[in-house]
Amino acid sequence: MAQRVQDRRAEETEEQRNSRLSDMAQRGQDRRAEETEQRNSQLSDMAQRGQERRAEETEEQRNRRLAVMRQRSQQRRAEETEEQRKENTFWAEHNVYVSDNICKKNKSEAGI
């Protein structure tokens, strides 16, 4: 089977090869366009459902939803701050270590 395909490809002209590759490229573009259209349709449906849900929610439900969003945001900021603190501590300790080594090297070279 593979040998037949190989033989057929060896016999095809440059024009036939270009036509075959062009057809393959076109099919790929068509497939990607279809996938994009489906994805956009799904996203549009999701957005529509979200709008409908929000239109139906009461003021109390809306306030609860916003409070949850605010709390999550605060937690994210707190976690980022903790991560940043850890990273800053690491680099501060690293810089002190490097600085100490430079001082030791300079003292050694100066004979101190």
UniProtKB/TrEMBL annotation:
InterPro entries linked to this entry: STPR
Compositional bias segments (type: Basic and acidic residues): 1-20, 28-38, 50-63, 76-88
Domain STPR, residue spans: 24-87
UniProt-annotated stretches for the region Disordered: 1-88
Source organism, top-level taxon: Eukaryota
UniProt cross-references to Pfam families, sorted A to Z: STPRs (PF21107)
Descriptive protein name: STPR domain-containing protein
Organism, as annotated: Araneus ventricosus (Orbweaver spider)
